[in-house]
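INFO batch 0412 | record 1 of 1 | parsing
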Amino acid sequence: MNFRLMNNFLKIFFLAFTTFFVQQIHAQDLHFSQYFNAPLLVNPANTGFNPDFDYRVGGNYRNQWASISSYPYKTMNIWGDAQLFTDRFENAWVGVGGALLKDVAGSGSLTSTKAYASVAYHQLLGYSSLLSAGFNIGFTQKRIDISKLTFNSQWNGKFFDINLPSGEPFSYNSTSYFSLQAGINYSWFVNDNLYLNFGISASNINRPNESFFDKKNNNTKVDPRYTFFANGSLKIANVWILNPNFYYSTIGSAHEIVWGGILQRDLSAEGNGNIQILAGAYYRLSDAIIPMVGFDIKNLKITFNYDATTSSLRPYNQMLGAYEISVIKSGLYKGKEKNLKCPTVRF
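INFO prediction complete | emitting tokens
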């Protein structure tokens, strides 16, 4: 596949999906702009899908809306996964992993803590494609400090009096539940210079209850969340790799669409990719432009992005939306030679 054909393919791909999915963006569940650097949260089929390495560990931090609030949204995530049974299966392997996620937001210190354990199975289909299926189970606990909140009924005509009854039927200041997620991925290794990957997942498929009110008298079931992503890698002139990405997620009436890409540049004298710089940009539909920069030195990748607001909130925050940092370290098991079972685009 030549570069002109690939260029046309990418244009058609992004146009088709953007046209199909264009809708107004609404606030939704916890998320990262660098969703591709939190792979286990996006789709459990990503668990252990790192063909060049045996394991990886990563972390993400996001700080949002600090310019307009004394209580900005802070989201933190640590995760890791590894490949197992690569010697037992000739054309397959198993991935296992886990993730911890914490989010603190608002004047009521609404705190969400989530823990996930995931497993995936990866099966080669011939010499140029791979099918992956994954499953995870998650535990969520949410807490809120009700004493820090004020309500309409506490307005005494001059100020909010916290000694007045709120009139709100709170039954708990914390809630917890288990959730289930499943997903599949398909990867196509076209040649040494081109790779394509698509995946879809569904979370909250057991529809757990989440509420600080009496669950008996309220419809408190969490809607399923559906996520689709598409990635690609195209090697150009042996020193550049173009990585286009597309992401769509929906839960209830909320939708999120992110698309864009990153360019990697090999700076190593040997041409082995041990030193790389990364730069690119993404766009979250009707919400933000997201420039991104980073580097990768001996399989330690650090990337930073800033969300410049483009929505109706822009006049109030002067486009100062959120910043985010991601750190990922990939490696091999000591004393063991890596047996690559599928081709990848690499320097």
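INFO post-check: Confidence is low (pLDDT under 50) at residues 5-28.
INFO record closed
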